[in-house]
User: Fold these one by one.
Assistant:
Number 1:
Amino acid sequence: MADSDSTTEKRGGRQLSVLLRLVRLVRPYRARFYLASVFLLLGSIVSLAYPQVARYAIDLGMKKGDTDAFNNVLTYLFIIFAMHAVFVWFRHYIMSWLGIRAVADLRSLVFDRIMLLPVSWFHDRRSGELVGRLAADVAVIEEVIGSQLSMAVRNVVQLVGGVTLLLVVDWKLTMVMLAIIPPFTVAAVFFGGKLRKRSKAVQDRLAEASGRVQEAIAAIDTVQAFGRERDEAKAYRDDVELAFESGLRLVKWRASFMSAVSVLTYAALAVILTIGGRSVIAGTLTAGELTAFLIYTGMVATAFATIASLYGSLSRAAGATERLYDVVDQVPEIRDSEEPVDLPDGQGAVHFRDVSFHYASRPDDPVLRGVDIVLDAGQVVALVGPSGAGKTTIASLLPRFYDAQEGAVTLEGVDVRKLRLRELRAAIAVVAQEPVLFSGSIRDNIAYSNPELSAELVEKAAKDANADAFIRGFPEGYDTLVGERGVKLSGGQKQRIAIARAIVADPRVLILDEATSNLDSESEAAVQQALSKLMKGRTTLVIAHRLSTVRDADRICVVENGEISAQGSHHELMTSSETYRRLVEHQLIEAA
């Protein structure tokens, strides 16, 4: 029992915390919130007048046969309708505006934080999960702020006002109503929540089936290559059948629920009508008062149901808000120093000084140990070694995608951890093995680091990257859309656009991460020529598997088991390093 109370208390505290955070989202627009609250209260008060107008219409107009009084009551009724419509419109518009505005702010807040989080944070999470948080979770919060919250306040006013007026009409009948309607309403909301959970289970089944469809379509060439079309289709049919069976069980539960609600609703009405009708016959209650009583009863029941269902909405909002603020509350491990230092002038001198590193998820498994590499300004240094030796990790420490646990990485003699991230990364450009292009135009991708770049400079960068000729071969030239991740371009074309993008960035230091390893000989020659132009006058760190990429480097570093086992020129290492010689013989021989 104590555990149950503790759980309830924690849940209540969690929801209070959620409400406070939601209130903070609205706080900058509190003037609008107060105005919406005024219209909400006015609309609720006016709606409480409906039953009284109905009462007068029956008692004064119909029962007494007073046509003038009846017409006057109808006139007042239409005036009240018009007033209520105006109040509802303003309340709905302002509260919806607040919901949309708060959600827009929250989306920006979450995405701003996501953009500041280190690369390692993303390795532990699926991109679909993050997109879901910005879509589904935010939609839940929008519903609470823009709709549920105002409905709750409105129904609290109607509940208090309705019960008060019911007591004025007939307190004994009110006690009967309170003994029947609220418990029944709360029970109905409770079981409605159970139905929502079952409905979610059905949706989860359908989501699994949809996931299979998405995966099969995305890999259709692999599916067909292995002759698995029928198997995938059968697996999908099985998932759909499971969803059908779950949906059928839900339909049975929902039909039973609706039937029970219908019976109990009419039974409750019958009880109130029986008692109220006897009072009308006895003369202690007028027909108009009974009508008003029934309308107020409907209002009170609706208010009870709405307020009770708000608990479920708050629970969903609590979960959604927690998931979003899990991101917002993240403190980036990689961030600017509290006392940042300006990046000195220079040509890109880099020093990895006795660097040791391990990933946070594997503290007992060091990736780098005592790495010491010097890159003088304008020098080309290549990293070679077996897969998993730590080459890419070394390169990732320079732009601070990760921070070393021991030692230091310096740029122009300054520890990169003391430099402003924006300034540090502006001085470095990366051309990766699989360059990522955005789904816009070729022009947009080349000018990514400087969207205001002139067309002339974009085209000059493309010429320097040996990309201008194939770009002009497209019907739309530089305005050609490349598709998601550049799917409309070949590997060599993507690489040359990535090189043009790096040229535009005009970095001091260039990192080439196996930039030609996936290209055919013709594409490699074109890319290599572009890289030679890009590397000219820049400090370059090259990670490569092909000898053609590294044999002309000023120095080659052999990385083994997270350590630098040898350094020197190609010819020196061929005689002094067995590992390097083996790599040339077994992995780099094609380009020797």
Number 2:
Amino acid sequence: MPRDLPLSNGSLAVNFDSGYNLRELFYPHVGEEDHTEDHLSHFGIFVDGVFRWIDDPVWRRIRQTYEAETLVSDVILEEPQLGVRLTLHDAIDFERNVLIRQVKVDNLREADRQVRLFFHFDAHLQEANVGDTCFYDPVHRALIFYKRRRYFLLCGQAGQEAPGLSNFATGVKEFNGSQGTWKDAEDGRLEAYPVSQGSIDGVGEIDLQVGGQAGAIGWFWLTAGTEYPDALRLHDWLLHRTPDRLLGRTRSFWSAWLHKQPKRFEGVDPRLTEVYKRSLLVLSTQVDRSGAIIASTDADVLKFNRDTYAYLWPRDGALVAYTLDLCGYAGMTQRFYTFLADRITSQGFWLHKYNPDGSAGSSWHPWSDPHRHRQLPIQEDETALPLYALWHHYACFHDTEFVRSLYDRLILPAGKFLLAYRDAQTKLPRPSYDLWEERRGILTFTTATVVAGLQAAAAFAETFGDGEEAQAFSEGAQQVRTAMLQQLWDASSQRFVRMLTLDDQGRVVPDKTLDASLYAVFDFGVLPPDAPQVVATMSQIREQLWVQTPIGGIARYPGDAYHRVSEEIDRVPGNPWIICTLWYAEWLIAKATQLQEVDEALPYLQWVADHTLPSGVMAEQIDPYTGNFVSVSPLTWSQATYCRVFQEYVRKKQALAE
């Protein structure tokens, strides 16, 4: 189920699904630990003897998005049979670890009514439903969920009444057939059992008196801390500041964040501009305060392989950081580069991926080849692209003091690794895994990033007066570029090959599969966008990888099996990907020399907008028949690629108009 309306302050983060159920709750890192483990936490209402959870299909969903230019949700649901309308606003305070929910209940009938609201939390603290505890705190009239050094306080307030839950329930679930306290709520009465331990959940209730044809407001909040007093202090702080003021300050912060720098979007389709703003806000929810840029916090993919996308991939992170710098967010990217500097290996490369706390992430890349000889379990583009993106950061902000701190720690080690990790005869990079993490070889995409990485290392060395290193990096970049153009270009097919491999006899075997990632040849500066080889390659990508259904979009490569929904390979080479479609748009923009040529990219930007949720959330892939989201959402790479290509579109139009 697609994730919608993610919220985060870089430490506490939540995701809601398309039914507006809370599905993930992360603390103390974005993406780590998931204290619901993809289990649904419900929200419901009881009125006139009838109970409804808000994901019941009888609700009419009037709106489900964010308030304009903020990370405050704006959801309106109406239940004609009950005669009620709910308006919900959720936010995470921009600084403190507090989730706030405002619920306005509009009574659509003439008679006064009592309304009960129920907030359910299905705890899987520290990603396991073992050894959790939930108890009622009678002093604060709140529920406390805890395990080891993780504490969550659930409380609420009905209108202007004294803060505290009107009623509560704690109980056991997922054990001996127990379903949980959310079932207890469905008769409108909670049993108020004061403590449960093991595999538990809990429900908090507040009661509102709502006049005929009138409205009333209730509040819930969840505070997070590493100790019980921490959660209590946040609770007391919230009561001192009031929930309404905290919601207001969060609105103000994100509006200020979004407008950090003046941006000129005159003459641009307002819908595309709106998607850009929303995408930028969604992107921000996937960045941890540690500097880790998370690929996706959507845990729904657990159903397929018992692992998630909640990791930092240095490649994805570098490309997202490039976009954030393009949009003016140097502070966020400085933390990212510092994160990487602290984790580079002694040999000068980065591992496959990292957890948000900086530890090494899970990996399927082996340390040995089929003959049991040692090999590096890396994707070399993940070492090259941080250098490329860091040089772009420096070009944007010229923050010499910051970059100086990374020169010896990150730039030189990574540059020297790229220089050394090459075949002595061909001058091409040695084999590594591809960006799709499916095959190992000498890849055109990876080789292009190595050229860009070495050029960045050379530019840094020149800037810091390191002439000998600058020359070595520059010569290495030129050698790789020359070798790439000679050995990875296939004249017979008039495009670059996907990769080269060696068979058991040591012979070079080209993989001529057309792959959308071949866009890298122009994007990372190996050739200009109007070079004949680039034009021929990109034209074939559009012709052969465009999905021939009403949905459209560009697939990764023919026969792509990842989450495949179609066997019509001739019509549907694979599911269309947001990033692949945007790469083609990026090429059209890059090669444009006249205003009308820039607008050739518009249909592809509009295609992405058409396949974006109202909240701004984008998926990894799109179902080629239904247009539904496939795999994870939001995918940070998709969000960032749209923001980058939109910026490039606007800037190119402005440059050609001057």
Number 3:
Amino acid sequence: MLIYVPDTSVIVDGRFTLFLEEEKNPTVILAEAMLAEIEHQANEGRSLGFAGLEELKKLRTMADDGLIDLDFYGRRPSSANIKEEGEIDDLIMSTALENDAVLVTGDQIQRYISEIKGIRTKYLEHPKTAVRNIEEFFGELTSSIHLKGNCNPILKEGTPGNVNSRKLDIVITENELESIASNVVKRARMEENSYIESDLNGATVVQLHDMRVVITRPPFSDSVEITAVKPIRKLSIEDYALGGTLKERILSRSSGVLIAGSPGAGKSTLVQALAEWISSMGRIVKTMENPRDLQVSKEITQYTSLEGSMEKTGDIMLLLRTDYTVFDEMRITPDFRVYVDLRLAGIGMIGVVHATRAIDAIQRFIGRVELGLIPQVIDTIMFVEGGQIRSVMVTESVVKVPHGMNQDDLARPVIIVSDYFTNEVKYEIYSFGEQIFAVPVDSAVKNETAIQKYAREGILREIRNLTGINEITIEYLNENRVVIKCPEEQISRIIGRGGTNVADLEKKIGLHIDVEPSSENAKRGIPGIEIKNRIVYINIGKPNVQAKIFVNGVLILQAKTSSRGIIRARTSTETGAAIFSAIKKNQKIEYFVEGSAD
């Protein structure tokens, strides 16, 4: 009578229990090392561990029913042994050797090592049939299913842009859900074109043929949950009616392309069509995916993160001499940096990002890469909605005065974002102070509201940092001049000595700035001015009041008027000279009087 010692590989995928169905009253010895490894995986919330526990429970039932003799052997390894590569396999082989048993494995390397050691070995091939639970929920137009224990399954049905949710009239028990999850994991290990993409603490991602299955467990989720997504149709590039010039632009390798859209908009369907079309044109195309779920032809090799790092995958990609790389999809900062590195190395890039507008796709690069590099790495943005290409934007870099600014000395590098089909400029992206803004040009053309908004925010931020006060309002006198209204006692702090603060602000934002007290009874006007015998006479017309004199919004003089409502200033003084110079330059001179009744 033969004694069998199974290793972990044939336990977790169910091959061993299927094998025993053909044996008569066999003796099975389970290595404590194998039990400890499965327990460890289950404790970490890994689906492989739970699948293994289900199979071990089946073995216990078979033993209780008298179908097999079941025994346990060996020492329980430490947690360090479990994590050490090859240690568990060695302990399982030792169990088989010491009990003169047959090692049953589905691992080719384990098979070769055990045979080299002289251990009798039984290698189990993948079974040709398997239970197919999860497909039962999919109909012809079902794009995804959502299963949770003791809840009704929810199905999403329809094409992109026309998706509806439907709740089934059945309830999935937790035991049924565990069975479905276990079968998914087993099939991923046994069936061709299927694999476990990742098995983390509480989350397992499986690619099962053309279906992506995500299994979550505590502690990651509050209970076991399964989400499966399946493409319902595959389109070709002809289905998108792209113009010949746009195809030439993409195929020229002079561009970095972004495919943008919200979840479920049809981004993956479009990028698959693009990848296969480019490949059909004789170009070498690779993909970078995590998880690998694009449905592309066999000529296109699909790569995932190497040792958990897309940066390492990018390093390998540079050695593969590929013409185009599809990056599906970019989420975190290292992903965007890899895209930029590959694009600057001369590889044609097609990146996929979540975005609700085409401009949002570009903004996801801002702050992650230098602003000046964006037009070099992003040439074309295709925005997808409802399964269709709704807009195509292109970028270019120029040096110009941003729209809405009028001073030539404010010229700077500006990224122009235009509609590909109409050549209409939609956005300008540039540095504004210490921030970067994407300004919609169409709004700026109509009423300057976008420019005013950013300028106002910049002024408020600077003033609040300077004075620490919040009682500030800003009004536009015209497109080139604003007035800051604040408490009177703060005016001098805002203006600064000699007007330096206001001058710096004017230079930074490109607008002229006036400063006024925010009190409701503050009055302003244009004084009468006369110069005699090197004395400037400023006629306010209000006797015995405190008045302030401003030149182009900058406080120059504060004094009490005479009984005739006049303020005098000698041109030999700094204040008088400034006023005299303002008169010659025809600059705006105003007075402000607090508390006047008229």
